[in-house]
Request: fold
Amino acid sequence: MASPATHQLTTQQLNALGQSVWLDNIQRSMLTSGTMQRMVRDGWITGMTSNPTIFERAIANSSDYDEALRAIARSGRVTPYDAFISIAVEDIQGAADALRPVYDRTNKQDGFISLELPPGLERDTAACVAEAKRLFKLADRPNVMIKVPGTPEGIAAVSDMIFAGVNTNITLLFDVALYEDSAEAYQDGLERRLAAGRSLDDVASVASFFVSRVDAAVDALLPASSPLRGKAAIANARLAYRRFREIFSGERWQRLQAAGAHLQRPLWASTSTKNPDYSDILYVQELIGPDTVNTMPDATLKAVLDHLDVRPTLAPNLDDADKRLKALADAGIDLDAVTDRLLVDGLASFAKDFATLLDRVGSVLALACVGRRDERASLPHVEEAVEARLDAMTRDHILDRIWQRDHTVWKPDPAELRDRLDWLTVADEMAEHVDELVAFATEVRGDGYTTTVLLGMGGSSLAPEVLHATFGSASGYLDLKVLDTTDPDQIASVESALDLRKTLFIVSSKSGGTIETLSQFAHFWSKIPDGRHFIAITDPGSSLQGVAVEHGFRRVFSNPPDIGGRYSALSYFGLVPAALIGVDLGQLLGRAREMMAACDQDVAPEDNPGAWLGTIIGEAARAGRDKLTLVMPRPLATLGYWIEQLIAESTGKEGRGILPVEGEPLGPPDVYGSDRLFVAIGAEPALDALEAAGHPVVRLPYLDSYQLGAEFFRWEFATAVAGHVLRLNPFDQPNVQEAKDATNRVLAGDPVDTRTPGAGDVLSSLKPGDYIAITAYVPRDAGWQARLQRLRVSLRDRYHVATTVGFGPRFLHSTGQMHKGGPNEGIFLQVVSQPEADMAIPGRPFSFGALKEAQAAGDLASLRAHKRRVARLTPAEIDTMAQ
Reply:
């Protein structure tokens, strides 16, 4: 590497020949360390350019922006784009200030830094102008340029931008004709300013003509032995330079120049060498000439300062450009077609890079939001216990032991503990399969499928349902229908909406033996017995895996086995359906992994969002606040379905537990007893009154829908910690099998007396701290949901107790564990509808209607065995009670 003195000599020589050296890079540490100021002071550079890729790398590969983005996140809800603009403008201002001496010394002709317009505006002239004006005003520096894309619409914006006094860098110019248009637009803007009596010497422009990408594209069309390889880009640039000299030499320009106008200099962009067989300074060495700018990335600049042969190479070789371009045409190269394609590809690449940048910014914002500093809680009567527990967790190294998979955090016996903890790191494992899942979704779409139906229960179905409700289906991706029922009317309703020829069925079961799932599979296989229409998600070696092989399923996804079903949202059980509906898996898992980092063993319990929340939930339950009332933001409204199963099935055992209250609308303080803990994601003004009335309230921040990935992990970790606080095993479900056994006995002919006391009789036994669970074996449709919601609100307001609604049989795989294994605080109102038309189950001696009735009867018998208070209601009684 040459000495600093040589650096200065090289750049001085280039400046003497009329070429400015700009750096194609920016990073905050360059400003804070003084590196950029020294480069400007020592004459290495006289300007800078930036782009999304540069900013994304700076954010990804350094901590320079972490605190700034955290501050932005804490200031309130902000989009990733606005957050990026905030940090970018700050850097641009710092660079502009460092370059200001050059700007002043050169009489406003040099010393600029560029900021690029976002993608999506390239075909909208008016939008380009509006955003350019906004960004230029935000930057508030005279030596800032706004980059506008070199599309016809972008170039059309140049005249208005220049007229408005916005310095302009026209970028992504590959074609000489479009370059000519940009020069015309610049002069047109200047003429309008002149006619309006505005000054011309305080507005400037460069035209960024891209170089090396042209060679990369043309070389791919030429034989490996062709002497024309590596010649097209420089010839094309020299032709543009010749047009520059012609355009800016006539009478029109002379009049503008006399009024103070600055030349719109060609800026050679894309000057790093792509082909390692070529000189690493090829696109600098061959393009040295007056009234030009060459913007270089760090590596190219270092090479230039080390071994550039500084001499004029533009003007002496302009005639040679014609010969080379003619030779290329004779060889069959249509340069116009090449440059047209390069513009399209450049815009697409820019959009992709910008999306990556915004994802990166969004991830940092999300990480800032998951940190404990952005959460708050009002915990009357519980706060001291929470603080004591957090201290004890530190003393006993509980977080270290959780991450080390130490089963003694919960129980001395490792059964259903040691082999249930891979949820801690499954997001890392699944991140390696994102490309595979995206490719699978692409394959399925390419084969013409438009709908996917998930056949599953509980942990196999709830996360996919939440994902679909949150994100919907992206354009061109499959619609998802989740079928977690044995109700024949609901099955028939779903089936009637399907084009079976375009439907992919996901048979999803961890154990592989779930009776509901296998019955649904048998039904749809009888309708379309073609393995190409079926995939399976299951544990390795399960009976379902054998079924899938026997029936020639399109694909079997073998899930990591050491994960319980309700902890499987971030595994194949959640991600395969998510891929099929077009969820951005990288971003979803990225948010989850950020929460993993925030919940790491090295983070103190009081600063650990999962440990902090789990401690509050657990200690609140110990203090009698065991009705965990969930308040979700509208975009994540269905997340409560998943949390309900996770918490209820994990903690409802040994006569203890936490009852999640999902979907119950908030009421005034006087309708609640003293057994509630409210946990809200996002702002909810109605909580203020509850907090003022003395109810404990936890508020978690909300950023955007992709926070769902973070919440999956946060609540899993919190549930594990709550299990520790309650001295429970949060990974087993001893009473779920009991309900299955009861169903099998009924199906085998063991009758159950379904007569019960009246609802009024059981409700008369309600006492403070009890809850009412409505367990409905009915179609889960909008009509029934509205009817049951009216009933629950009426009962809550009348009796001042918590209420839940569960649709059978899905709740048997969810809150059913809490109903039988938790404290005897529940009153159960069971309603069973009769199907309009029953439906046979192929290969079974019973129908779907009989299976549903058996599940309801078995549930009733199991509740009685645990001495629970239960009443069976008719559908008509439901409406009467709700009045």
The mean pLDDT is 94. The longest strand covers residues 771-777. Residues 510 and 600 are 27 Å apart (CA to CA).
